[in-house]
Amino acid sequence: MKKFLAIILVLILAVSAVACSGGGAANTAKKASLTMGTGGESGTYFAVGGVLANVLNEKNPDLMNVNVVSTGGSADNLQNMAAGVYQLATVQSDVMTYAYNGTRSFEQTGAVPNVRILAGLYAETVQIVTTDPNIKTVADLKGKAVCVGDQNSGTYFNAKDVFDAYGMDIENDIKPIFQSFGASTESLKDGKIDAAFLTAGAPTTSVVDLGTAKTVYLVSIDDEHMGKLLEACPFYAKYIIGKDVYKTPEDCQTVTVKATLVADAAISDDVAYAIVKTIFEGKDEITAAHAKGAELDLTFATDGMAIPFHPGAAKYFAEKGITVSTGK
Question: Global pTM?
Answer without folding.
Answer: 0.76
